[in-house]
Amino acid sequence: MDKLGVDLPLLLSQIVNFSLLAILLNMFLYKPILNALQARSERIRESLDNAEKVKQQLARVDADYDAKLQEARREGQTIISQAQERARAQEAELLVVARNNAAKIEEEARNKAEQDRQQMLRGLQGQLASLVTETASNVLGRELQTKGHDELINKSIDQLGRLN
Amino acid sequence: MSTKQKVIIAVAITAVIGIALRIFLPVGTPLVSVRAEELFHIGGYTITNSLLLTWIVMALLIVLAVVGTSKLRSGNAEALKQPRGLQNALEYAVEMFYNTMQGVSPKFAGRFFVIVATIFFLVLPSNWFGLIPGVGSIGLCYSHSAEHAAAPNYVATAGISTDTAAPVLAAAAEGGKYTHNCPSGTAFHPFLRPGSADLNMTLALALISFAVTEFWGFRSLGFGYLGKFFNFRGGLIQAAVGIIELISEFARIVSFAFRLFGNIFAGEVVLLVMAFLFPTLLSLPFYGLELFVGLIQAFVFAMLTMAFIDMAAESHGDHGHEEHAH
Fold it and tell me: Which UniProt keywords apply (chain A) (predicted)?
């Protein structure tokens, strides 16, 4: 062993060297770096998790938005259809009222016309009676006594009315 | 001219220049020492050049670690969010090594990361430091008596004074003239030698690896761990297998120590011999090779330690993956 240069103090000093180096490198190299690597990978995992979460939230918000949009659309549709229905109902109602009004107006007009006619007829009758009496008195040359001939006059007016 | 032809011509020109320069540059005979050379003594302790380089490597690593992770340790949120510069490089190295170890032993990589990573991060720069020009080639001539003398008067014997031992710069440009320049009775001692080219360090690492493995075996299996080696209930074959296991367990110390030592030391020798044969250019490919070998050996040492720790915790599972010596 001596020819190979193996020497106990040197051997021991190399073992001590190694131990010292191991301790110091562990303190200054391995531990800080391995801790940093672990911290970094943890941070990366966290970030990825967060990203995943955000993505999920976004998806949820998107879904919510879609649902709300759908609902709003549906509501709008119902409102429109209700309005249309109501409008149709009102239209029908208005039509009925208008028709009734028109009928009433027509009726009234007809009644008025009838009344006017009756009135006119009545006026005409009076005039006719006096005219007839006058004409007759003229024709007969004497004044017919109104009294006592009323019956005759009324009969002739009645005939007149029937003629009409 | 095709690429292949270009390459061939480039190699030929390089070889010619290399061989031509060999003629003009005087090169001394390479001197190889398996032992780590002694430099000086402090209070009775011998300091070798490999120990010195190991300290330099350690200091460098610790300074890098302290500087690189200072922001992280002070809890700087910005540094955590966005690593920059040195911190980023250190993080990359540590994370990559951690993930590799996790691949070898998913269960125990975290628990033994300190040991395994320190092996890797100590051995790798040690290996690569040997490739820096000047490491292993700049030194002093020491008188032989100083090597074994108990007296720590190295200044006198190692000789800063020029008559006994002239300080010699043996850089590549001077072609390793040191063997000529050292007077007889003295030997050249380079100032620096990679720690992994010294058996003391590789053996120390091997013992640590062995101790941690056995500790973990007993820790996770109790005395049942010994059943792996002394298995007499399963018949003769099982008993023989147990004994072989026991031998291989201890053989690991040797194989760990000598694999790393052999590779790095041999690499040094190859570079030395190549520099001796061709002082310029042609030894370059071997530098690339040795860079690769240095990385592989550091990785193999750390990874095998991790694998053995993992296997020690298995009760009587398969022993399918034995070590693959490189």
Answer: ATP synthesis, Cell membrane, CF(0), Coiled coil, Hydrogen ion transport, Hydrolase, Ion transport, Membrane, Transmembrane, Transmembrane helix, Transport
